[in-house]
Specification:
Chains A, B: This is AcrR family transcriptional regulator. Chains A, B: InterPro entries: BetI_C, Homeodomain-like_sf, HTH-type_TetR-like_transc_reg, HTH_TetR, Tet_transcr_reg_TetR-rel_C_sf. Chains A, B: Keywords: DNA-binding, Repressor, Transcription, Transcription regulation. Chains A, B: Pfam families: TetR_C_6, TetR_N. Two copies of one chain form a homodimer. Chain A is mostly helical. Chain A starts with 11 loop residues before the first helix and ends in a 6-residue tail after the last helix. In chain A, helix 4 packs across helix 6. At the A-B interface, helix 6, helix 7, helix 8 and helix 9 of A face helix 6, helix 7, helix 8 and helix 9 of B.
C-alpha cells in the first residue's frame, strides 16, 4: 500500500482499515516486537501517515487485535462456553503472531500508567467476555449439563483463563501443549447443552 | 544495603542474595516496570555493582522470581494438583507486584530472541511444573477421584493455565475476579484424593 498521488480522496477510515489489514499480516508473519516506525516501513506507509491514523503504537496494536477478533464469527454461538473458546483457540493456532500480540497487550495492560489505551481495551474485553460466557454457563445450568450450584461468573472467568494460559504455554513450546485437547478436558467437565 | 568499606569480604553469593531480597521488596511495593539503573538506585546499590551480579535486567528479574518461588514450600505436597496451585495463588494475592513480575517474564519469554535467559527459564519452569502436576493427577486417577481416561498431561497443562489466566484477570480488575473461588470450581471438577 504505497503512499502516493491521486489517492487523497480516499476516506481516512478506508486507509485506516488498509493499515490494520497490512499490520495483521505483518504481525502474523513476524510477531509484534517492533516500533511504529518499523511497522510503517514494513507495510509501505510513511511514519507521518501512520501517526496520523494511530497516535501511538498502543492504538495500532489494540486496533489490529480488535479487527482480528471481529473478523471471526461470535465464538459464543456454540454448544457450550468452553466449545466457543475452543473454536477461537483452534483458529488462533494458524496465527501465532496474533496470539503473541494478545499476550503483549495483556502484559502492557498491567502497566496501565504507561499504556492507558491498552489497559482500557483489555479490561473491557475481559469484562465483556466474562459477561457473555456467564450467560452461556447459565444456559448450560438451566439445561442441567453443568451443576446448578456453581457460580456462573466464577466458571466464566475459569474458562477464559484456561484458554489464555494454554495458548501461552503453547506459544512457548508448541510441541509440548495441545490447547484444544486440554480445552476438551474442560469441556468434558463442563458439558454442553446438546450431546 | 549501602555500598561501603569493610564489606568486601562478603562472598558474592551473599551480596547477590541481598540484592535479590531487596528487589523482591521493591517489586512487591512498586511493580516491575523499571530499568536496572532505577532498581539499583531504589535499593541503594551502585549500577556497577548491580551489573557485576546481574549482567542484564532479565537475569535479575528471573533470579528474583526464582527466589520468590523457592521461598515457599512445594505447592504440590497438597491433596490434589489444583489444591497445590490454589495454595500458590492464595499466597500471591498479597504480593501483586510479583504476579506482575511473572506476567512480564512470560511475555518477555515469547520474544525469545531479545530475552533468551527469560525464555529458557520460563520454558523450563512450565516443563517442570507440568511434569510435577502430571504426577499429582496420575495419583488422583489411581485413587479414583479423577477419570482414568483423561490424559494427565493435558489435565496438568489445563490446571497451570487456569491459575495463570485467573491471576492475570485478577491483576487487571481485582474486584471482578476471585482466583481462589474459580480454582475451587476446577478442584471440584477434579477432586483430590482425600475428602
Amino acid at each position: 500500500m504505497p503512499e502516493g498521488s491521486g489517492r487523497s480522496y480516499r476516506r481516512a477510515s478506508e486507509r485506516r482499515a488498509e493499515v490494520i489489514e497490512a499490520a495483521i499480516e505483518l504481525f502474523a508473519a513476524r510477531g509484534v516486537s517492533t516500533s511504529l516506525r518499523n511497522i510503517g516501513d514494513a507495510i509501505g506507509v510513511s511514519h507521518a501517515a501512520l501517526r496520523y491514523h494511530f497516535p501511538s503504537r498502543d492504538e495500532l496494536l489494540v486496533d489490529v487485535y480488535r479487527a482480528h477478533e471481529h473478523s471471526f464469527a461470535d465464538p459464543l454461538e456454540a454448544n457450550s462456553a468452553v466449545a466457543g473458546m475452543r473454536a477461537s483457540a483452534e483458529r488462533n493456532r494458524g496465527i501465532p503472531g496474533l496470539v503473541e500480540l494478545y499476550a503483549t497487550l495483556t502484559t502492557d495492560a498491567l502497566q496501565g500508567e504507561e499504556h492507558p489505551v491498552t489497559r482500557e481495551f483489555i479490561t473491557e474485553r475481559f469484562r465483556d467476555l466474562r459477561a457473555r460466557l456467564r450467560e452461556a454457563v447459565v444456559a448450560q445450568q438451566e439445561a442441567g449439563s453443568v451443576p446448578a450450584d456453581l457460580d456462573p461468573g466464577d466458571v466464566a472467568a475459569l474458562i477464559i483463563a484456561a484458554s489464555d494460559g494454554l495458548q501461552l504455554q503453547w506459544l512457548l513450546e508448541p510441541g509440548a501443549v495441545d490447547v484444544e485437547r486440554s480445552l476438551a478436558v474442560l469441556e468434558r467437565l463442563l458439558p454442553g447443552i446438546r450431546e
